[in-house]
Amino acid sequence: MKLLIREETQADYDAIREVNKLAFGGDDEARLVDQLRATGHFLVSLVAVECDRVVGHILFGDLPIETSRGAIPAASLAPMAVRPEFQRRGIGSALVNAGLAACRERGKAVVIVLGHETYYPRFGFSAQLAKPIECPFPGAGNAWMALELRPGALANASGRVRYPEPFRMTPH
Fold first, then answer.
1. I want to staple 44 with a disulfide (CB 3.0 to 4.6 A). Which of 60, 71, 143, 155 is the partner?
2. Could you tell me the residue ranges of all domains in the chain?
3. What's the rounded Cα separation, in Å, for the pair 59 and 7?
4. Is the pTM of this model over 0.85?
């Protein structure tokens, strides 16, 4: 089967909701995506399509890192979902790679994720790199990770991020 990764369209919204509900076993992430879209707090929203069916979705939002030297242009990766029956086939990896490329094209220097600590390092995400960035979610530990899209973007930098309101309304 041929996999297509593309920007979401309005016609994809219901399928994106379904993918997130199935992948996460509930409505929280589906609602988060809808709220981020409705409030304009997204930078990149991609779907994975196989046989004319949306089987995966990833969203990146604008998330500048506030430092004493000014803001570092960054993005958040959240959420990323693949329909359970299509998991472990490289669809999530294709979405992450395409999304990182799109963030780089849109001028982002860093991407932040609060995600699975054994999955995201394969793309270069590092808990160590994220340590100087204050995590707004208590107990995140090594799930709080950063990736430099521009080498050295976080060199000698420390700061914080402020996730938009929809994230504060969603349980983590």
1. 60
2. 3-168
3. 10
4. yes
At residue 48, what are phi and psi to the nearest 5 degrees?
Answer: -105, 125
Q: How far apart are CA 6 and CA 99, in angstroms?
A: 10
**CA 38 to CA 87: how far, in whole Å?**
28
Architecture label for domain 3-168: 3-Layer(aba) Sandwich (3.40)
CA distances 41 to 11, 76, 105, 134, Å, are 19, 10, 18, 20
Specify which residues 146 forms β-bridges with: 112, 126
Contact by Cβ (8 Å): 127, 144: yes
Q: Are 131 and 158 in contact (CB under 8 A)?
A: no
